[in-house]
Specification:
By secondary structure, the chain is mostly beta strands. Helices cover 12% and strands 55% of the residues. The chain has one domain: Immunoglobulin-like (Sandwich).
Length: 141
Amino acid sequence: MRKHMLWLALVAMSGCASSPLPQVDPNMAWIDLATPMPGGKLLMAESLDGQKSPDGRFFQVSPGSHELKVRFDFEVFVGGGLGMQGAPQERLCYMLVRYDHFEAGQRYRLEGRNIAFSASARLYNAKREIVAEDRQINCVP
């Protein structure tokens, strides 16, 4: 089942990867998505203010308050023993980040991070200051 979900996600992303990103609208805020730490495989825009995102690679939002929902896929290593590392296991988390002060013409960066079985998200402004963090995380398995 997990392999089928991963396969579908990769097929969906391959369609997005082949199309160019749209022009940045100076009247909107742009949010890039990233997984800077090892183990993070995919961070994808899921929904904006409860509405399905048309493109999983970024968010582009009007000024003001918004709730971003992202999907974060990463690997954790379980098993092993006696210092041996076990086989990787896929983990999928959905995280909500709310920020009340998006500004037109500004770029933001939303990063998904994982430490062991836990996931977190941080939203940075252009000065690399943390302006918001996840407020809800739902993970499977």
